[in-house]
Amino acid sequence: MTELDNAVAVVGLSLRAPGASDPETFLSRLSRGEVALPAARGEQAGNGRLLSGQIDRFAEFDAELFGMAPAHAALTDPQHRVIAELVWEAMEDACLDTQRAGNRVGVFIGGGPDIYLHRNVLPDERTVRAHGTEQIMLGNSRDFLATALSYRLGFTGPSMTVQTACSTSLVAVHQAVRSLLTYECDVAIAGGITVFPVERPEHDGPEGGIYAPDGRCRSFTVGSRGTVPSSGAGIVVLRRSADLADGPGRARAHILGSAVNNDGADRMGMTAPSPRGQAEVLREALEVSGLSPADIGYIEAHGTGTVLGDQVELAALAEVYGTGTAAPRCAIGTVKPNIGHTDSAAGVLGLIKTVLALQHDLLLPVASQPGDGPDADLGAARFFLPRAAATWSTEVPRRAAVSSFGFGGTNAHVILAPADPVPEPAAQDVRTPVAVLSAATPQALRDKARDLADWLDGPGARAALPGVLGTLWHGRRQLAHRAAVALPTDPAAARERLRQWLLETAQRADTPPAVADAPVAVMLPGQGIRLTGTGASAADDPRFGADLERLSAAVLRAGGPDLRGFDTWPGDDPRLLDTSVVQPLLFVVGLAHLWRLERRGVRPGTLLGHSVGELTAAAYAGVFGIEDAAAAVVRRGELMGRAPAGAMLAVPLDEEAARDLAAGLPADVCGVNGPETTVLGGAPDTVTELERRCAGRGLTARRLETAHAFHSRAMEEAAARFGEFLATVPLSAPRLTVLSNLTGAELTAEQATDPAYWAGQLRGTVRLADGVRTLLAGRPAAVVGIHGGRALTNPVRQTARLLGMVHPPQIIELLGPSEADASQAHEDALARLWAAGCPVDFDLPHVTSPVPLPRYPFADTRHWIEATPGALPHERPATAAAVLREPAPPQEPSPPADDTEETGSDFAAAITAIWQEAFGGEPLGPSDNFFTLGGTSLQAAQLLTVVNDTLLLGVALGDLYEHSDLGSFIRRAEELAAARDDAELLRLLDEIEGVQ
């Protein structure tokens, strides 16, 4: 049994403290002994009071990332908001996307007092009226600090708020450790936060109080006179250490043991500390860890800087850790001189400091400040205060402890061990590398790309690319706005392409968000499409290669051609013009690629095949069994190959104009591929004449690479024989949507099981243009052509433009342009499908040491309700104690959007204003939906109360559910108003006034 068998690993962390908003800056400033408190910068309040420590970004919040309406974000306590962003950062630091991994995540956090609720929110009558007290409490009460976080981030493990005053966050860590070791959760989030909701918080420092009169905290120094209150927050992400040994993941440090107790009645008063209680919790944590006091070389003390607090703590430390004349040296430290006392966050910030010290092999100094007295007597010969950063020497054991003691007597102590560095596995041959990015908004996506590009040119210049790509794929949540790209296999070329792509992404215009499980349509080619390169990536994907072999063998058993090694055939190989070869080859390649897409997470919902491509689609949809499908395409190819020689010509005309062009010639319309693309066919000399006529009209025509005029009169005998053959083949209804070449509509069960349909499909005009319209009417997120080049997919682009589609689907050629590397083009197509919302699996290797990439670029939007002076009792002047505050003058509501045709009346404008007040943000229009805006059942009830009270209506909850768009809701309200008996209403009001 090793010391890590029952240990818990710290795998991720994040923080906001005075002077630092990330672990790297925090460590750097601590190592230099910098003090980030206002007094150290010479800042003063100017009114005789002292300035407290403050963090960055307490008023700004990325509401959209966390699915909150702007108005809801503004009424939510900044502690709830800051902790949400910190948990996001800590999970990214841990390289964990628990949504995909399926981990049960527990949440154990605590917060400071709800000052924002009482000073900013409740005094604002408009906010209370618009949202109601229940919704306000959900965003402000500490009861919901943890559970709201679990709701917003989808965490399903235990979720609880922990409150023990100053020891809150270290007690939360202890609770999280217990939960992990009893298997209540797989990942635990622990920490705490205190935020003073004002730009320059102030406090008093009376002589003899707990706050230092000079605004400086001088822990363990003779003459120290107290602490300094500060905003601060910290989060750690924890996992069982044993789980890391069995799989990917990195530990920053390990928690070997922890303990929590209370001082009980053994003290002078409830807020006084007890040396006995503190000593007992230290002993218990050591016992749990299996270590002795001599094994500990650093103790991060509570160290408030108060005279009594420091004396009691040093006495307890000396009693437990100071015994033994031969014990090695042990450093005592505390973070409070640097950043002040962050109350509910104090313990976790001390823990984070210690984790960073262990990880970087540094003994961090206790900050020295002007006016410091001598170091206090630490109570034991082995104790010392480091006053400068130093490497953790062999004289000092590399194990550490962290203490946090709460006002009220709840004590916590944690024992830590360093994590051994985990070597990266040897480089493996993997498929084409892929880079992915995602964000909640288009702007955040651009910012993320720009930040990563800058990082690659700076701190990340030497980072290994596989680690970067693995961290992006495994360690980031997949959000709605996405971008992805396949990279070359050469490392230098890949790095340069990644950098170029990031700069392009940083400049790109807004694009629609990804659609969850995006509907995909697949187009399968007929003859005349380039076939070289269609199997080139078989070597990179053995299962794809096996599918090609399996289908080729089925073709061979059916009496068809030997297709083995087809991808090595030169482009001018005569077999590529032989119908009896090309049609089975199209079937083999198309079906193998469909199966390959499915294995990678892309299952098409709609299939549109051109000519023989429709048979491939039908085989995938279950109309034919595989052996029967192979036999059918072999027979079809043989029959069509025996037809008289012919040719086909694509002309840039619609069907009517193409028929006019061919007037008087024995030519047929073989296919209508697009709005201005028609294919004519006939004997070679007929097509030559058609080419002459096109030239005479200034038209650019293109002769297809075929030896016959397919889907023309030349195919009538082949069609008859094919129908006879299919009469012997079992046919089934399609399991997926297949679009018919003959009608352009969905292939029906009757058509699919009728041999005569397939005979007619061989002879009749291919109405691809109609099929494309039907395909686009289904609103696919992406259309994939299983081919190289754009010959088959260009009609989709043209039709989407003609239809005026505001958000056309992504149109993707699976094998890229004709000159593209097939493997990279295939992965790039999958990258674009992922960006559209498909659950593509790129099978990138896990990273044992995640790369410290730039943090998520949270939006800098200020969500704030301004404070009401004197809202808290202690802030009111004594002479004004009985004076009621006059209500604030009503604010003008945000103007409705210009396109609100329903809001022309005062009645409609009033409802629009009520909705606007409830949700905030950009002006609302008729199409804005209550639920899409983030409305909840509580908000619905409050909104209806305001509407009904304001307009004297009786709108019911069901009315809102049935008419959830603003415009529809207004119309429903107008209907109710029109049916209202105003005379009776006025009579009742008169009666009420008479009674009063």
Would you summarize the structure shown here?
With 996 residues, the protein is α/β, with parallel strands linked by helices.
Can you give keywords for this protein?
single chain, about 1000 residues, alpha/beta, five-stranded parallel beta sheet, elongated
Alpha-carbon Rg, integer:
36 Å
Q: Count of helical segments? A: 33
Helix content percent band = 25-40%
Summarize the main sheet: 11 strands, mixed
Distance between the termini: 81 Å
The spatial strand order of the largest sheet comes to 4-3-5-7-1-8-15-14-9-10-12
Structure description:
The protein is built from 33 helices and 26 strands. With 996 residues, it is α/β, with parallel strands linked by helices. It has an 11-stranded mixed sheet with strand order 4-3-5-7-1-8-15-14-9-10-12, sandwiched between helices. A hairpin with a 4-residue loop joins strand 14 and strand 15 (410-418). Helix 3 (78-93) packs across helix 7. The longest helix has 21 residues, at 579-599. Mean pLDDT is 90; it is low at 876-904.
Topology:
Elements: E1 8-16, H1 23-31, E2 50-51, H2 70-75, H3 78-93, H4 98-101, E3 105-111, H5 115-121, H6 125-138, H7 145-153, E4 159-161, H8 168-181, E5 187-194, E6 202-203, E7 232-240, H9 241-245, E8 253-262, H10 275-289, E9 298-300, H11 307-321, E10 330-333, H12 336-339, H13 346-359, E11 362-363, E12 383-384, E13 390-391, E14 400-405, E15 410-418, E16 434-439, H14 442-457, H15 465-474, E17 481-486, H16 491-507, E18 520-524, H17 542-557, H18 579-599, E19 606-609, H19 612-620, H20 626-641, E20 647-651, H21 655-661, E21 668-674, E22 677-682, H22 684-696, E23 702-703, H23 716-726, E24 737-739, H24 749-752, H25 755-763, H26 768-777, E25 782-785, H27 794-802, E26 810-813, H28 822-836, H29 906-919, H30 937-951, H31 957-962, H32 966-979, H33 982-995
Parallel strand pairs: 3-4, 3-5, 9-10, 9-14, 10-12, 18-19, 18-25, 19-24, 25-26
Antiparallel strand pairs: 1-7, 1-8, 2-6, 5-7, 8-15, 11-13, 14-15, 16-17, 20-22, 20-23, 21-22
Helix pairs in contact: 1-13, 3-7, 6-30, 8-13, 10-11, 14-16, 17-18, 17-20, 18-19, 18-20, 19-20, 20-23, 23-25, 26-27, 29-30, 29-32
